[in-house]
Amino acid sequence: MRGFAQDLRYSFRQLKKSPVFAITAVLTLALGIGANVAVFSVMNATLLNPSGVPHADGVVALRAGYNQGDLGNINLSPPDFEDASEGKEVFTSAAVMNGMDYNYSPDGGGTPELLRGAKVTWQWFDVFWAQPMMGRVFRPEEDQPGAEHEVVLAYSAWQKRFGGDPHILGRKLQLNQESYEVVGVMGPEFAWPNRAEMWTPLALTPSRYTDPNYRFNEYLFGVARLRQGKTLADANTYLTHRTQQVYQTGGRLSDYAKSAQWHQFAMPLIEFVSGKMQKPLAFLLGAVALVLLIACANIAGLQLARASGRQREVSIQIALGGSRGRLIRQALSESVLLALSGALLGVVVAKLSIPLLLALAPPSIGRTVSAPMDARMLLFVAGIGVLCALLCGTAPSWHMTHIRWFQALQEGGRSDSASPARQRTRSALVVVEIAIAMLLLFGAGLLVRSMNTIQQVETGMQPHGVMTAALTLPKATYKTDEQQANFYNSLEEQLKQIPGVQHAAIVDSIPFSNGGGSASFFIEGKPVANGALGPHANIRSVSPEYFETLGIPLMRGRFFTSADRAKTQLVVIIDDVLARQYFGDSDPIGQHINFGDPPDKDPWREIVGIVHHARATSLENDTNEGFYYFPMAQAPNDSSFIAVKTNGAAAGLVGPIRNAVRNVDPSQALYDVKAMDERVDDSLIGRRFLVVLLSVFAGLALLLSAVGLYGVIAYSVRLRTRELGVRMALGAQRSDVLKLVLGHGMQLAVAGLVIGLGTGLALSKVFESLLFKVSVFNPVALLSTCALLMGTVLFASYLPARRAAKLDPIRTLRDE
């Protein structure tokens, strides 16, 4: 231990003598380590250890699905949850929630505010092992109809909305114009789901859980915690058994379940939350690991160059009996000091980078996770520091102990020409750097082209100039469909009076808002066999000018009008996808559909129009299902979106829209206020997150590779100074010297390019899973990547080549 301490002090003195090298090495490592720590921290908080959920690996999401259709992974129905809650031998606790937003009316008046929340069953907090910081959580008797006027506040809402009032417990809050008592405040780490600000009891009637007619009404998100010793496979075995029991009950619902291949299953909560970000995050971690590898290769190359200057010193130590083990320790101790300094500074870089990383991330990650520097992260930093020390120090320590000390003493340390192995090692390190940079540039180029392709996808509407906002009508005030319809009718009239507004509409779920539902339906004259899976489509309720507001073109028939009211003929508009899928060559206009089960229990609705299909959630993946639309007056909803079309900038509509809402009902709060263009753009945020970061890492890799190549060429020129001087003395032109040096750099570049390109093509399956209608074998991407890399290499090689071409042969030979 004492000897190692001496080696560290000796290495520190050596680094002090080379401050430029030390600072460059530490900063390079800090960038590489900081990027790795930042990306891993997001992975840790998202995939490995979600904040606020102790032992998250024991929590599963309860799901239902249909193998027929596009509904393989959906929410639960109340009877589905009842099945899971009875699995006491598998689950310690189970709970469900339904998202619910509340209009909060401050005491003494004031502008109403929206509180985002959830209605949950009483065991919700037990599943997550979440304890309140103040007060308590819900009791079983409070999760009953009529007894559910209690609220638990999230820490953020307690601080932001109520100023951290220490006397908040027992306070009465007016939520949706009803009184709720605050019974608890959760700690700052827990806010499931989706950064909820509050929770109230779900309070479903007991019959909802047991009535088989609710079996396929899936609208609840369920979670459960596994018993100790139980696995995900045990949970799915149990849920499969309950699915089979439903199949065996017989009757119409059982036949339907079997025909649709309905089933229940569980999946890890971590996997459900991270969703499609698992693969991109893993891809990014691999990318930053490659950047760190380049950084370590650069430092190893620099240390090899420094070892050349210390060749005589080391030779003397060997001649005097110095052991190779001691020399290895000296070489590694220098790498340890660099790695330790780089790791410490890298933590600072990561701390500064993580907020930016979360800001670029999709809302499902950026708004729902925190990335603290916990024990797992410190262990990762320590591990990566040790790895860097080994990567940076292995090659220099090996070469230091394989010096031909007798020859070095004879030559007086004047030349390193007798060490071609060292030069080959440095060249090999640069080839690896260029290959990695080529791989990252290749991937980034493909993702950029893929992003451009997605942005050209037609949405089926004209989102420019449309401002949208959401509101929720409290059922305490708007108890009937007629009251809701009257509110929307009055609001629509107010919106149309705003100067510059061309059209205004109300819809229960706006496109690209991650909302909306779907349902089966029946076509008159086309009976469905008992238990068979009938037609299925997405469903929306819209006001008359909805299609004109969003620029969805009419293909046949007519739009809704103000005459389509609650007591008139029930009508429906369908899109062209639904028309093709279920009506074929026949004309849908004038035909009838309904939504009863069985059909004779629901009135028929006449199809009066066909509109163009509009994408609802994604530019990348469109559902195979069509849409049918109801008039808002005939099917109102207590939660809806406002959409207003202007001939100017949409941003200028926010204030007038708020005023229009206040004119109709001052107690209503607007939320989720966004331009339609912004909603469409936000749907690409996950892909943009990957493209931006990979492009940054690829650029960093290219820069580091160029620096490494410059170092190798400059070092090679220094070694060959006498040779170049002789060539020029014998008649070689400066252009010949320039070509000679550039040729060396281009040889290394071509070798790295071929290796990197070959690796990229070998990993084509990995790239293809992240691309959208772009082939890995894309000639434009290949040529542009190669051109960028070769141009950078040419520039990095030209600088030392130009210096070599300016050598004075007479002075060079005289100095030698």
From TrEMBL:
Bilayer-spanning residue ranges: 20-43, 281-302, 336-358, 378-398, 428-448, 689-717, 737-761, 781-801
GO terms for MF: transmembrane transporter activity
Domain MacB-like periplasmic core: 24-239, 427-649
Broad class of where this protein is predominantly found: membrane
Compartments, as annotated in UniProt: Cell membrane
Domain ABC3 transporter permease C-terminal, first and last residues per copy: 287-403, 696-809
Membrane disposition: Multi-pass membrane protein
This protein's GO CC annotations: plasma membrane
Protein's UniProt keywords contain Transmembrane helix: yes
Pfam families, A to Z: FtsX, MacB_PCD
Keyword vocabulary terms for this entry: Cell membrane, Membrane, Transmembrane, Transmembrane helix
Family, similarity comment: Belongs to the ABC-4 integral membrane protein family.
Name of the featured protein: ABC efflux pump, inner membrane subunit
